[in-house]
Amino acid sequence: MKSVLLVDDDLEFTDIACRIIEYLECEVFSAATLKEAKQWLDTQHFDHVLLDFMLPDGSGLHLLDHINVNGISTQVTMITGHPSVKNAIAQICSTEIGHLTKPIDADDLKQVLCNAGGNNLPNKNKTQSHALYFDCLIGESSTMKDMYRMIERVAQTDANIMLLGESGVGKEMVAQAIHNASKLSGQRVSVNCGAIPKDLIGSELFGHEKGAFTGANAQKKGVFELAQDGTLFLDELTEMPIEMQPNLLRVLETQTVTRVGGTKSIDVNCRVISATNRSVEEIAQNKVLREDIYFRLAVFPISIPPLRERKEDIALLAQYFLNDMNKQNKSSLALTDLDMALLMAHDWPGNIRELKHTIHRAFIMADLQENKLVFPASFDSPFSRATQAPANANPPPQILSPHAPVTPPPVNTRLSADTAVGTTIEELEKELIYKTLASVDGNKTNAAKILGISTKTLYNRLNSYEQTH
Amino acid sequence: MENKQSVETVIHDARKPLNHITMNAELLKIMVDKSISPEDIKKVAEQIIVSAKECSETMQQLLK
């Protein structure tokens, strides 16, 4: 039986929470002040401490210090009753510290208290600074938590799952999460249905025998066979030519495949997770998917929420990507409150993928002297839903930085109007740097000021461009 | 400005009983699942009523 210490000065809350925790089959003790909590911790071992942020005789963070200083081994989860400080707490709560917002529901408590037991509930990966659900998902919003519950349930079954969500929401990660939660013995095999040439789709899905067609020099297993006892992830399912779909239906119905050019039926057993960025309505209206295939594959549809509908997760995700880049580059850049406000204000039409690239760009442009990221003044993108006045659609470089000179630079300094999707951040950055330099006649100090970076950073960038050419 | 502050205070104060209501309802769900005695369940329901009244009284302050 796990022992839990609940530290909160709201006695009625403590009373109710203690009863719920007892029903979760944990032994629970309570403290209303820091002093009491310290006394408990000094005399007894607790597997878990649920800690209120604000206490009558100090902040819950003081107790964290006490725990660290005295080397007390326990799992800590911070609790707050103030939604406004939720994000701040999410940032403070690092490595092994989770957080909950009042009112706490029984499922949340169960999740937090049962985590350390290493069961099939969402796991907190202790090597990461954020809670990783199913070892790969990040997000504490209620929409994500609803999804975690669905994943947990469906993972225990062998139902086929269809993931619906906009581009960039992380469909492949959700597929991985389901695979991880399913604890299957086989592997997860991914195939992008939109990227396979029409003529090769049969060979890709079902495999082929040697000599089945010109160029088939050896026998090849199809993805259904490769995913035996595991998960087959069919990405961009709705991009599969409709004339190929009956083949897929046959495998799903008979659970057998016949390799191209082969005669033997091979039994296959795998869970199929399919994904599409089209809505159910669009699928039905445009007839991009056969109805029978839809019902076979969408036994359990899961809609992944777009990032703009779970804005509270932006801070967590941004911090996660930044930590990752800091780790790779052995740096310690940080996000300021202003950066966070900027990130929160954007609607992220490209979802998590766009956020990741934005952080990457800001990391590349970072001011290393100030140890901070450098974001553009706005995140305008051709896909943005934000209605912008046409005059603001392509801000000239001189307004990209608050240090910009008042006098407009000469013409020919605008970024290419035809900057297209597919242009890398590095290419854009390079173009921006060279155009800015041109606008100030090559004066690096002025260019650095306009770009909002240090002169040293500018020199570093220019050196790296020279080295690559 | 003063008015805004008082609204914020009322919201802050109302949140506490609302949290109690939510968590007591959670507790009720568990108690029903575990077939706890109707008397005990009734006590929790009564606490919910007390909290709801407390919340209502707190919000009444806005009209004063």
Automatic annotation (TrEMBL), chain A:
The keyword ATP-binding applies. SMART domains: AAA, REC. It comes from the Bacteria. CDD domains: AAA (cd00009). Residues 137-364 form the Sigma-54 factor interaction domain. Pfam families: AAA_lid_14 (PF25601), HTH_8 (PF02954), Response_reg (PF00072), Sigma54_activat (PF00158). GO terms for molecular function: ATP binding; sequence-specific DNA binding. Keywords: ATP-binding, Nucleotide-binding, Phosphoprotein, Transcription, Transcription regulation. Residues 3-117 form the Response regulatory domain. GO terms for biological process: phosphorelay signal transduction system; regulation of DNA-templated transcription. The modification 4-aspartylphosphate is found at residue 52. The keyword Transmembrane does not apply. This is Regulatory protein AtoC. It comes from Pseudoalteromonas holothuriae. The gene is atoC_3.
Automatic annotation (TrEMBL), chain B:
One of its GO terms (molecular function) is phosphorelay sensor kinase activity. SUPFAM superfamilies: Homodimeric domain of signal transducing histidine kinase. This is Histidine kinase. It comes from Pseudoalteromonas holothuriae.
